[in-house]
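step 3/5: co-fold with hypoxanthine
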Amino acid sequence: MYKKLAACLESVRKKTDFRPKAGLILGSGLGDYADGIDVEAVVEYTEIEGFPVSTVAGHKGRFVFGYVEKMPVVIMQGRVHFYEGYSMPDVVLPTRLMGMLGAEKLMLTNAAGGVNESFRPGDFMMITDHITTGVISPLIGPNIDELGCRFPDMSEVYSRRLREVIRKSAAKCGIEIKEGVYVQFTGPNYETPAEIRMCRMWGGDAVGMSTACEAMAARHMGLEVCGISCITNLAAGVSDVKLDHKEVQETADRVSTDFKKLVTEVIAGM
Ligand code: HPA
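step 4/5: write tokens
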């Protein structure tokens, strides 16, 4: 896996020598965020040797390098999901690559279902912690010693410092932000009402199909991590409404202006 990563790094380095300080992974609703930044270079995933390419409609697949305010960033426009059939190490390959490109901090965004009954579609939730019991660890397999240790600590995946940055950024933007625990399942099916009740008993507040594995891989490498979920729908069984990808996209699009504002403020304050 390290050789594969090194080959990917070389492919990107043939296109740009840009050194990002921060990485940003865009979830639903933020797809076009990268189009609005001060772009220095774009590298399509298909141009990177051995890189997993996303198959989800509406997900572009490219790294955008540039500046958000004055922060040099690499943005993943289109992430790779486990449910597409990639191995977990492939799912987190782009995250690791961002770290190898120079990113020391990582901001994760996603669309998620609201498990916490006080959440409403369109709410934002700062991720305080996560539960990955529903997916296999991306760190399974021979340890990549070049990146991190065999048994990495996960007691503060989402940095205390960056959580404070998010709170302050939200306040500055006049955007209300909830806080909670993100639970990752594999997807692509939505959960059953029983699974959502289980999430709630576990202490989960939101549920989704990405992010936590990326956070784990980033922490393994020692990156400072933070994350925000856009609550696009009430999770299964919270209301009588059947779950539908269209609702997820519609809600994400509806609040995308606020989400983008918040992301910019957080990156600038990182
Ligand atoms: N479940 C899982 N993933 C999701 C959901 C959900 O309800 N909404 C958006 N992504």
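step 5/5: annotate
The pocket of hypoxanthine is lined by residues 111-113, 190-191, 207-209, 232-233, 235, 243, 248 (CB under 6 Å).
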